[in-house]
Write a structure and sequence with these properties.
Distance between the termini: 32 Å
Number of domains: 3
Largest sheet: 6 strands, antiparallel
Radius of gyration: 21 Å
CATH architecture of the largest domain: 2-Layer Sandwich
Structural class: alpha+beta
Strand content: 25-35%
CATH topology of the largest domain: Uridine Diphospho-n-acetylenolpyruvylglucosamine Reductase, domain 3
Number of strands: 20
Oligomer: single chain
Helix content: 10-25%
CATH class of the largest domain: Alpha Beta
Shape: globular
Number of helices: 7
Length: about 350
Amino acid sequence: MQVELNTMNDSVSTVQMLLKEAKEKGILAGQLTFNASMSRYTTWRIGGKAECVYQPESIQDLQLLFKLLPEEVAVTWVGLGSNLLIRDGGLNGVVIYTNGVLNNITIQCDKECDKECDKESNENNCLISAEVGLACALFSRKAANEGINGAEFLSGIPGTIGGALAMNAGAFGSETWSYVKTVMMIKRSGELVLRTADEFNIQYRQIELKDSNELKHEWFVSAEFYFKKDEQGLEKSKREIKRLLAKRAATQPTRQANAGSVFKNPENDYAARLIEACGLKGESINDAQISEKHANFIVNKGNAKARDVEALIHKIQQAVFKQYQVKLETEVCIMGLSE
C-alpha cells in the first residue's frame, strides 16, 4: 500500500515524517493518509482534516504503530464514522480507521444435541469472537446465518463492534454489553491485555473500568460474545432482523446523511418526544436540519458544517431545558478543533 500525501498547502509535520519513514521501510503494512478530510470517514459527511489517518492491516500491525508513536501524539479511533462529529478545524495526531479492516469473526457453538441426549439440558451456547472493525450489521447477519438468537438488535446499529463496545450501543431494547464475555484491549505501549466483562462498570451508553482511569489509555481491538441458538434459530433470527430493519427505515432518516441518535434519552422519557414537543422538528441552521422523520436525528442536507450541527445541538438543549428543565446529554461524540 502506498502513502497518500494530500499535502497541498499543508506543511509536513514531525509525526507525518515519522510514519512516512516507517511505511517506506516496510515497518508498517497498513494504509497511511495525510491531511485527509474527515468528511470521507464519517456518516454525517462532515469534518475538517486529520493530520494522519492510518488503516491497520492487522492487530499486530497496530501494535507496531503504537510502539512507534511518541506518547504526546493524540490517537483517535474511527470505525464506520457514525455517532461522531468532527469539528471543522480537524484532528491533530493519528486517526486509526478500522472500517474494512480488523473485521475477522469466528463462531463456535456447542455440538447440537442428538436424539439420545436430553435436549432440555442442552442450551447450545455459542461464542462469537469479533474484531472491532467488523460492522455491527454484518455481525448480526453472520450470527443469524448460524441460527444464533439475540444478536438481531445489532442490525439496527450503524457502526462497528468497536464503537458498540466503547459506548455500550443499543437498539430495540437490547445493549451490546449484555452479551460480552471478554475484550482484548491495546495499551498505548502496544501491549495487548485481556479483560473480562466484570472488570467494567456498564451503564447506559457508557462504560468504564472499575477503580481505574486505564480506559483513557486503552482501546478495544476484539471481543468475545455469548449467545444461544435453538432449532428455529435461523428463520426466527432472519425474520426478526427483517422486522427491525423495516422499523428502522420507517422511523429514521436512513436515506440522509446522519450520525444516529444525537441525544441520550433522559430517564423515563425520550429525547425525540421532548424535541418535537418544543416545535423543533424540521428546524435548520444552514444545511444542518433536525429530521422531519425523527426529532433525535440531525441530517446533513448537503453542505452542512460541524459548526452548524453544534449550533443546532445547543439550540435544542436550550429549548428543551427552558420548556421542561431537562438537560439533554449528547450521545454523539464531538471532537476536534474549531476553525
